[in-house]
Amino acid sequence: MQKLVNAWAKQGVMLPRSLHSLYEHLRDYLVAIDQERIIGCVSLHITWEDLAEIRTLAVAPEAHGRGVGRRLVEQALEDARDLGLTHIFVLTYVPDFFARMGFLPASKADLPQKIWQECVHCPRFPDCDETAMTLDL
What is the pTM of this model? Predict the structure, then answer.
């Protein structure tokens, strides 16, 4: 999973994840496996009693266009509902993907300050060029 995520991080489209970070948040992650190989992952990170972030959505290039990312996000949203969460947000470079799943553009200023603790590790901080989007479940 780290290899997949960090390959995308090298392209500047997501934050890199250390092995320590992945283990620390392992229960946040869902993975897609094809022939015993991880071809996708996503994290549902709870940030408040009713709020979670979809983050670290990564799909192997050879699995693009097969619905892997969509299915991972759908499962994360189902898990969020099961946990009683009512609001989901994402910071993304692919807003069209999330718009097709019902997410709406949002102002970053409306997101809780707590989410920015990860952003300080981004090379683009504080000039974030990702699109904030939200979904009410």
Answer: 0.87
